[in-house]
Amino acid sequence: MRFNGKAGIGRALYTALAGKRLLVLHAFVKKTGRTPPRAIELALKRLRETAT
Q1: Does the N-terminal or the C-terminal CB of the chain have fewer CB atoms within 10 Å?
Q2: For residues 33 and 37, what is the distance between their CA atoms, to the nearest angstrom?
Q3: Is residue 10 within 8 Å of 36, Cβ to Cβ?
Q4: How far apart are CA 3 and CA 45, in angstroms?
Q5: What are the φ/ψ torsions at residue 6 (nearest 5 degrees)?
Q6: Residues of the chain falling short of pLDDT 70
Q7: Can you give the pTM of this predicted structure?
Q8: Sign of the four-CA dihedral 36, 39, 41, 47
């Protein structure tokens, strides 16, 4: 997902769940052309926590 705000362009990492639901795992303000590896690691950690 992409958002525009006062701080700049925001991004959200999410996953699709059963029943037409989305789970937002992490949102951050994007400052470079690439998604920071730390943001991806945090989103994956949160995904694993919700799966258990």
Answers
A1: C
A2: 12
A3: no
A4: 23
A5: -60, -35
A6: 52
A7: 0.80
A8: negative
The predicted pLDDT at position 50 comes to 86
Q: What burial class does residue 43 get, using C-beta atoms within 10 Å of its C-beta: 0-12 exposed, 13-18 middle, 19+ buried?
A: buried
With a CB cutoff of 8 Å and minimum separation 6, the contacts of 51 are none
Look at residue 44 in the predicted model and tell me its pLDDT.
Answer: 96
Distance of CA 46 to the CA centre of its chain: 10
Rg (CA), the chain: 12
Q: Which residues pair with 2 in a beta bridge?
A: 11
Cα–Cα nearest to 25, from 52, 48, 3, 43? 43
> At which residue do the structure tokens 């690439």 appear?
34
- Contact between 15 and 23 under an 8 Å Cβ cutoff? The reply is yes
